[in-house]
Amino acid sequence: MAKTVQITFDAHDPAAIAEFWAEALGYVLQPPPEPFESWPEALNAWGVPEDQHNSRSAVIDPDGVGPRIFIQQVPEEKAGKNRLHLDVRTAPDLRGDERMAALEAECERLCALGARRLYRVEPDGMEQGFITLADPEGNEFCLD
Q1: Using one digit for the tens of pLDDT, what is the confidence trace for 5-23?
Q2: Which residue stretches of 14-95 are H helix?
């Protein structure tokens, strides 16, 4: 039987990273469970101290297709290159200049949201071309 996956990010500011990835992927913040109208209402009802309200967050695909992304607060800084990264499929059916123009447009949009452009790889033989960025806390990902 196939398993589903959840992607987990470590972060200093889970709320900010959740907002970035929701915008980047077309996801939404995961709503609180019923009967709560908001996360602060739920957290207060559960007795979670206010200084821990931003210790985690999650974003979900509103269509229920993509994996849940969970963001947990950690005290340490990111120490090195990711061993695993996301490829955000921005232009999977495009080729050449049209593909790279679509990737550049998305790169510009994400940089306006707080991402940082790292490098661009041009189409060449087997390589279709991609752009590598880092999210606001330095996690690398590719626009593909």
Answers
A1: 999 999 999 999 999 999 9
A2: 14-25, 39-45
